[in-house]
Fold this protein.
Amino acid sequence: MNAPTDTQQLASDNYAGICAEAFAHLEAANAGHAIAYGDDVWTARAKAAIEDVFETACEVHFVFNGTAANSLALSAICQSYHSVICHELAHIETDECGGPEFFSNGSKLLLGGGANGKLTPAAVEAIFRKRSDIHYPKPQAVSLTQATEVGTVYTPDELAALQATARRLGLHLHMDGARLANALASLGARPKEITWQAGIDVLCFGGTKNGLAVGEAVVFFNTALARDFAYRCKQAGQLASKMRFVSAPWLGLLDNDTWQRNAAHANAMAQRLAKGLEPLPGVHRLFPVEANSVFVSLPEAVITRLHAAGWRFYTFIGAGGVRLMTSWNTREETVDAFIAATRQALGETTPAPAAVANSLDA
Ligand SMILES: *Cc1c(COP(=O)(O)O)cnc(C)c1O
C-alpha cells in the first residue's frame, strides 16, 4: 500500500499552508509600527487592490473566516423576519453551525435543489412562490456558492438567468466565493463578469483556501448594504486590531496574479486526479470536475484501506462518496501517489466482474 509521499493530503484545501507571496507580505507588514484596527496603509492598499481586481468601486471589509463573512454579509441584507434562498448543499446551510441565522437574529434559510450543487432559477422561483403570507419568513436574498460545494461552477449564462429571476422577484444576491478564484480560473472569466455584472450585491471573497493564513474579504458592490457593517464586524469579534496582518497578505495574492496562478494550479491538480481515478474499475465520478475538487464513489473496503494507509479525506456525501480536494501547492507526486494507492486498494479488493457491476449500480 502506498502511503502519502509526505505530509501532503487531499482532504481539504485548508490543509495547505501560506503561499510564499502572502508570507512575504506578512513579513513586510511586520517591519514597523502601523495604525491599528484597519486604518493602516496595508489595509488601504489591499482594499484598493480588490477594487482593481473587480474593476469597480466597492466597499471591502476583512474578516477572519468564511463563516463570519457569510453570516455577517447575509445579516447586512436581511432583517430577522427575512429568509435566504440557497442550495441544500450550501456551506451556509451545512457547515456554519447556524451562523447566518444567529447573526441575522433569525433569518431562515430556505433550501432549494438543483443538479451538481447549483441552484436553478426555477428552484428559486418555486421557493419564492410557495408562500407570500404574513406567517412565512419573507424571501429577501439568494445565496450562490461559486465554485460550488461539489466542485462545479456556475457559468456566466447560468448566473445571468439567476440574476434575472432575482431582480424580477426583488431579491438581493449574495455570493459565497470561498473558491471564487478556482471558479474564475475554470471559466477564464474576468472577476467582474461573474460578480457585480452578474448582479451580485455582496461577495464573500475567499483568501484562506487560495494561500493566506487567515482572512476573507466581504466585498459590497451594492455599497448601500454596507451601512454600519464595520459595527457588525466589531460586535461579532471580527475586527482585527492588528488588521495589517490580515490585509497585507492579500497584496501577495492579488499583485502579479498570484491568486489566479494558485487557483489554476489547484484546478489542474484536480484534473490530473480525476483523469487518473476515472478509468479505474470500481471508481465512479459523482460530479463534473470544474474546480479543485474531485468527488468519486469508492467501495467501502477501498476507503478503509486508503484510510489505513494514512490518507485522509472526507466521506460526507453518502455511502461510498469521497471528496478529494487539491490546493495551490498540491504536488503532482501527491496526486499520483493517491491514484496508485487507490489502484492498489482496488486490486486487493476487486470482486468478480459481475459483483463490480452490481456495486456500481448500488
Ligand atoms: C471553506 C468554505 C467557507 C469558509 O469556511 P470557514 O471555515 O468558516 O472559513 C465558506 N464557504 C465554502 C463553500 C467553503 O468551502
The first strand starts at residue 59 and ends at 63. Residues 354-362 have pLDDT under 50 and may be disordered. The pocket of pyridoxal-5'-phosphate is lined by residues 65-67, 91, 145, 149, 176, 178, 208 (CB under 6 Å). Residues 258-277 form the longest helix (20 residues).
